[in-house]
Specification:
Chain lengths: ~400, ~290
């Protein structure tokens, strides 16, 4: 397996800091990979579109309208992206608070993923803001709209990103060989985790709460006063499905970084996560069922939107839930991956149904994202993957920390 | 006026607040008592459909004069270049004109949505937009039940366009430009309380001309714009299914839970952490 020489991935042990960083900035892997060949032109095109967007206004590249002011960039990049980043708070809860050491080997990569998702998807939010130069207003100064859900979401986002950076920072310190800093930062992990989980629970639900005032605009099958709770519960299995999916890919792409022991334990980790996903999805389905009964929307089921709702609930929540259960009992890892992908499709559907598809479902003209909005979305995702790859192939994320860091689990 | 219960509580609150925050808000009391919400009554039976209001509105706010034609039964909406729009609706009582504009809610969804207080409910009543604070997130548009705020999607420095009830004119003692320009007296400017009394009087004096409802008296927790009509309001293009309670109240439960969760969850997590930490060390001892 280990064709590449292991010393290719090495933490700093004594070289001057700037020189070390300089050497690390150079690309380490082949440049002409299929992924790079596809992603590079899309990112370039995305950058060009972003220039047009700031030059001519949002209307130049988006299909947003007075009726549908929030489109793909909010509904997918932000609302869905943050749900998928939920794995970080769930895993830190399991590993640091519940002390489930089994999952320790995937904690760092999940935190990194979560942090980058926040940085990029909420970064994409800046593209969507009409007047981004005023973005600091709710952070500094006397313009606190404290009665706004968005105000709370913004603050919880910001603080959570700091908490995640703090949770990840020991990896950076280990990479740079900063032993003292690594020790101090590691000591702050528990605090960061506790506040991170608190902040997460509120902004995951807060993203749903954003839509509470759009009562008359969202299809009644997706609108209820319980959107915040539904968003919070679904973020648990959305995040864990992402962890399963991303872990399966990472273990192939970065296999030379992963120790024999971690390779062997990975199936066990996925296996355990499938049980948690199934449980969370059961709770979610139960909640959805209660909300549905409570809303007395039986007659809406026999409409096109009703079939769409049933497809989401049965095809992409109930079926993957049963697959998770079944594959947990029969220990079929490939089936867990299938279930994770189905679950992720279900989460995308759910978030888009609330924010885009079910939003003004009864309007004469429907919002369909322009190809340019989609290109920018992909550009954001690809850039995030580039950064992720850059970090993983340099810092001790998947591979072991240097011996001096002295992690107790090793 | 005696020292009744309400006054007593108000004094108590102001005294408490003053004690709590010091002298900085000392002036609040006298300010709040001096002003009552102002609004506008639109009587569609008096509207001539001349669109003088549209033209003077455009002129007052430096917007292009609307050139499109008013046709019966063809809905016209406010746009990012037009803050008010006259519609000619075909109703069960024949053709009825109706003026669309910002409703200036008592408890506006847009101001509750705004995270920078750019959308702002002034103490006089008008809901205004302040460009130096707005970050262009358009959450006000998502939240407004009447779909009033419009965004300049084709500008690099986009603004939100919506009626501000000519707040600058009101402050200098004038009335809104549209109310001043209206040749048919369809628009009356005044305090909300007076306008509701006036509307009731008109319904009482000529019950055959009006349906017995003032649109805006209750909808969305009450609005500054009040409408009288000879035909049911759903026939005038209003969404009569909107709730009568205020829209910001929909987020109250969530907003209230935030500080509790922020305060209560960390100690709980810390407690679980401490508990599981001990468990583990015992297990290790056994091994």
């Amino acid at each position: 397996m280990n064709k590449k020489a292991q010393p290719n991935f090495r933490d700093n042990d004594g070289t001057p800091l700037l020189k070390f960083i300089g050497s690390e900035l150079k690309p380490k892997n082949k440049l002409l990979t299929p992924f790079n060949i596809i992603s590079f032109p899309i990112v370039l095109l995305g950058l060009a579109l972003i220039v047009i967007r700031f030059w001519k206004g949002l209307g130049a590249i988006t299909n947003l309208s007075q009726e549908v002011p929030w489109g793909l960039w909010i509904g997918f990049d932000v609302v869905t992206g943050v749900a998928f980043a939920g794995g970080a708070y769930v895993l830190t809860f399991m590993v640091y608070i519940l002390n489930m050491k089994k999952y320790h080997s995937i904690v760092r990569v999940t935190i990194l993923n979560g942090f980058l998702a926040y940085a990029f998807y909420t970064g994409a939010l800046l593209l969507d803001l009409g007047r981004p130069w005023n973005v600091v207003n709710p952070i500094i100064g006397n313009n606190f709209g404290a009665s706004s859900v968005l105000f709370l979401v913004a603050w919880h986002f910001l603080l959570y990103m700091m908490a995640e950076l703090l949770e990840f920072s020991p990896a950076i310190a280990e990479w740079l060989g900063a032993k003292r800093a690594a020790k101090i930062l590691s000591g702050m992990t528990i605090g960061a985790v506790i506040f991170g989980i608190t902040l997460s629970s509120l902004h995951q639900s807060g993203l749903g709460a954003l839509y509470l005032m759009a009562k008359d605009k969202i299809h009644p099958l997706w609108y209820s006063e319980f959107i915040p709770i539904l968003f919070l519960v679904s973020s648990v299995f959305a995040g864990l499905s992402m962890v399963i999916f991303e872990g399966s890919i990472s273990h192939k792409v970065f296999s030379d970084q992963i120790s024999e022991k971690d390779h062997k334990s990975h199936d066990g980790i996925i296996h355990g996560l499938s049980k948690i996903c199934a449980g969370a999805m059961f709770a979610y389905l139960f909640l959805q069922f209660m909300v549905f009964i409570h809303g007395r929307n039986w007659d809406l089921l026999n409409t096109p939107m009703g079939y769409w709702f049933l497809l989401e609930m049965i095809g992409f929540v109930m079926i993957p839930m049963m697959l998770f259960f079944y594959s947990y009992r029969t220990r079929k890892i490939w089936l867990i991956r299938v279930a994770a992908i189905l679950t992720m499709i279900g989460v995308v559907l759910n978030r888009l149904n609330v924010t885009v598809i079910g939003f003004r479902w009864n309007a004469a003209t429907h919002y369909v994202p322009s190809w340019m909005e989609i290109v920018v979305t992909f550009a954001v995702i690809f850039t995030e993957i580039w950064i992720f790859r850059w970090v993983v192939s340099r810092m001790p994320v998947l591979r072991k920390s240097p011996a001096w860091a002295g992690h107790d689990e090793d | 006026m005696g020292f009744d219960r309400r006054n007593f509580f108000r004094t108590l609150c102001v005294a408490g607040a003053t004690l709590a925050v010091g002298n900085s808000f000392g002036a609040v009391k006298s300010d709040e008592e001096a002003v009552e919400f102002q609004g506008m009554l639109y009587d569609s039976t008096k509207c001539l459909g001349c669109r003088a209001c549209e033209r003077v509105c455009a002129k007052t706010h430096d917007l292009p004069e609307p050139k499109d034609e008013l046709k019966a039964g063809v809905p016209r909406n406010m746009t990012e270049t037009q803050r008010t729009a006259i519609n000619n609706c075909i109703t069960s009582k024949g053709e009825v004109f109706v003026k669309k504009q910002c409703m200036h809610c008592n408890e506006p969804a847009c101001t509750a949505a705004c995270l920078t207080q750019a959308m702002y409910k002034t103490k006089e009543g008008p809901v205004i937009w302040r460009g130096d604070k707005c970050m262009g997130c358009r959450y006000c548009m998502v939240s407004c039940p009447f779909d009033v705020p419009k965004f300049e999607f084709h500008s690099a420095n986009p603004k939100i366009q919506k009626c501000d009830l000519c707040y600058d004119r009101i402050k200098s003692g004038k009335i809104p430009a549209c109310a001043e320009a209206c040749p048919g007296d369809a628009l009356t400017f005044g305090t909300r309380r007076e306008l509701i009394a006036e509307a009731r009087k008109r319904i009482f004096e000529s019950p055959k001309d009006y349906i017995n409802q003032i649109f805006g008296e209750e909808v969305a927790g009450g609005t500054g714009l009040l409408y009288l009509s000879p035909a049911p309001f759903n026939e005038l293009g209003f969404n009569t299914k909107l709730q009568n309670s205020s829209y910001p109240a929909l987020t109250k439960g969530f907003l209230y839970s935030v500080p509790s969760v922020d305060v209560l969850l960390p100690p709980l997590l810390l407690a679980i952490y401490e508990a599981t930490k001990n468990n583990n060390s015992k297990e290790e001892d056994h091994e």
